[in-house]
Amino acid sequence: MLTPVNQVVAPRTRRARDRRVRPVRMVETVARESDRGAERLRVRNTRWRALRILVPLLGLGALGLAARALLQTAAFEMKTLRITGTARVSAQEIEAIVRRATSRGVLQTDLHALRAELRKRPLIKDVEITRVLPDELRVRILERTPVALVARNRGTPVCVDEEGVVIGDFHLLGSQMLPLLVGWSEEESDLAAAENRQRVALYRQLQQELSAPEPSYWDRVDQVNLRDLKNVTVNLTESPMTWIHLGDRDFRRRFELSLQILSAVKKQDAAELQRLGVAPTAELLQEDVTISYIDVSQPSRVVVRLPERPRAVTPARSREAVEARVRARTRAKLQPTRAR
After folding, report:
1. Exposure letters 143-160 (e unless 16+ CB within 10 A, then b)
2. Is the overall model pTM greater than 0.85, yes or no?
3. Least C-beta-crowded within 10 Å: which of 64, 105, 267, 333?
4. At what angle do helices 91-101 and 111-118 cross, to 10 degrees?
5. Residue pLDDT tens, the chain, 340 long
6. Closest by alpha carbon to 89, among 112, 122, 114?
7. Residue 135 in contact with residue 79, Cβ under 8 Å?
8. Pairing of strands 124-132, 80-84
9. Which residues contact 81 (CB under 8 A, 6 or more apart)?
10. How far is it, in rounded angstroms, from Cα 321 to Cα 82?
11. Which of 239, 180, 187, 237 is nearest to 206 (CA)?
12. 181, 224 contact by CB (below 8 A)
């Protein structure tokens, strides 16, 4: 008798082999898909890195072009210029220099170079420049002030400031009168410049001491000789032939002492001269006597000198007489002596 259903039983070993193969194929497929995803991620990251670098560079370039275009616009063209502090310096000259320097606009003006250019002027001591955007410059000038009138070996006197810098001729003083400073060193060396600064300092100290308190004696001084920095010497407008040696300090007290001596000599007051420490000699008590100098650098030992008297000159022998005597002596020596 036959059965209607056929059943086939597969061997177990074959089934087990099929089960083991299937997982291997799945792992390989997943690995391939994972590799492809990593590759796509790497490509995507590379693109993002490139974009991060390129975008800022493009932005900087665009910003530079925009800034350049902005600088070249008329927005920064100088429209307002304020100049202050000019008393002796020409404001028109300063304006011309500034306008040349700002031809490219206020923002692009080199303020340090402009300041250096302005300071080349002898009368300008310093400059302060302020930039007010978008279109304004403010220039404040600090001028040099003449404090002394200096005599030179050649040429007219010149004015110098407190640092000993020559700033111009005597016309800078206008109506102001200053005693002439004598003894200025014209050598071009650091030592000469330092000594000249000391001369200006002594000149100003003398002016300060003789000007205050009242009465002021400064207007009675005609010249100030500062050749010797240890011995300030002055002469007076009323007696320019008389030089007064003041030393290097205590100028007012010593100057007043010299004026008292001159007054006593003029009055022929022997007692006053004695009180002031001056020997009242007969020559000093003469009428209308001229005094060469008074040395009050040491008030306890005052020295007064009169002009030296001209020495008596012996009349020169005539040339003919001298030649005759020479010939006579020569003949006497050459004449033979006769034997007796």
Report:
1. bbebbbbbbeeeeebbbb
2. no
3. 333
4. 150
5. 433 433 333 344 555 555 554 554 554 555 555 666 677 777 777 766 766 776 676 666 656 555 555 555 567 899 999 999 999 999 999 999 999 999 989 999 999 999 999 999 999 999 999 999 989 999 999 999 999 999 998 889 999 999 999 999 999 998 889 999 999 999 999 999 999 999 999 999 999 999 999 999 999 999 999 999 999 999 999 988 999 999 999 999 999 999 999 999 999 999 999 999 999 999 999 988 999 999 999 999 999 999 877 655 445 455 566 566 656 655 554 555 444 3
6. 122
7. yes
8. unpaired
9. 95, 98, 99, 136, 137, 139
10. 87
11. 180
12. yes
CA gap 16, 8 in Å, rounded:
17
Burial status of residue 218 (CB atoms within 10 A of its CB: 0-12, 13-18, 19 or more):
middle
Sequence-ordered list of residues with C-beta below 8 angstroms from that of 126, at least 6 positions apart, any chain: 119, 142
Q: Which structural domains are found in the chain, ordered by start? A: 75-143 (3.10.20.310), 148-305 (3.40.50)
* Phi and psi, residue 164, nearest 5°: 80, 20
Q: Is the peptide bond before 215 cis (omega within 30 degrees of 0)?
A: yes
Are the beta carbons of 192 and 185 closer than 8 angstroms? Answer: yes
Closest CA to 293 of 249, 256, 267, 261: 261
H or E element at residue 294: strand 293-295
- Helix (H) or strand (E) holding 103, with range, is none
Q: Which DSSP string do the residues of 155-179 spell out, in sequence order?
A: SS-EEE-TT--EEEEGGGGTT---P
In the sheet that holds 293-295, the strands lie side by side as 166-169, 158-160, 148-150, 180-182, 221-225, 232-236, 243-247, 293-295, 303-305
